[in-house]
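Quick bug: Universal stress protein output formatted oddly.
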Amino acid sequence: MDASRDGTIVVGVNASDSAREAAEWAADLASTQGAPLHLVHVVPGSYRDAPIAALPAWLAELRATARRLGVRDCVAEVRPGEPVGVLTGCADGAAMLVLGSYGDGAWSGMLAGSVALALLERVRCPVAVVRGAAPRVPPPRGGPVVVGVDGSPAGRAALDVAAGLAEAMGARLVAVRVWSDVVASGDGSAHRRTEDWPVLEAEARDLLEAELARVTATHPGIEVQRDVDEDSPLRALLDRADTARTIVVGHRRSPASAPGAAGMLMGSTSRGLVEFAECPVVVVGPAMAAVPPADLLSGT
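Here's what came back:
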């Protein structure tokens, strides 16, 4: 165990419905794992200022709801500063950082765009963006945990997180590996390698089995579904979003992928999921690739 990680789930909150749904989603997970929950409301000010002692009524209510949901250790606080800096600091050593996806003000960090993407580039824990199918529609409480698999270090970290979530939620794990016979030529054009179709599909299946061998050994109780698709990563994952409880995807700064295989970790894929998926999306950023698998989701 990495002693610097305490298993806390941190939630950036404001008075919006989306933030309340994110806090309740995080509280369910914290209760299941026996993990501490840290609710953080960021207000304009200097990071040098002390936290504000008085809690707004809505924040005290969120804390009370978390305790009713079974969270034994829940801290709520108001911190001055700017959202990315404050939440990055709070997430240091955390198991997960959770954000809502629909908000009343972009500055507060509750929108699912640039703030979430900026945070996943900085923090060493997964970033969950929690949403339902529309504003004021709660996130789904059933369905599988879906994960994109491509064999890269960030992809392995995403798979470890997804397996941990599936086990904690008592959900099926759906592992998705995509492939394509479209390859780029030296002049920038694309062509199809139709003759290689059986080989490419077999390679995709072999990679998926090799990656799953590790997580099924460490999480022997979870049910695993293996999906191999000829598709783009974003379409393959979005197609499963309407029935998923959560989607987990890796994100890396470099979009490079192996020839003949569509990479599951391109920035456009994680960004598209955060913006359009009708379920919570957990993004595992590049800083997570070096974190030991046992420490990715909890302090155990």
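Actually, after a second look the formatting is fine. The first helix runs from residue 17 to 33. Closing.
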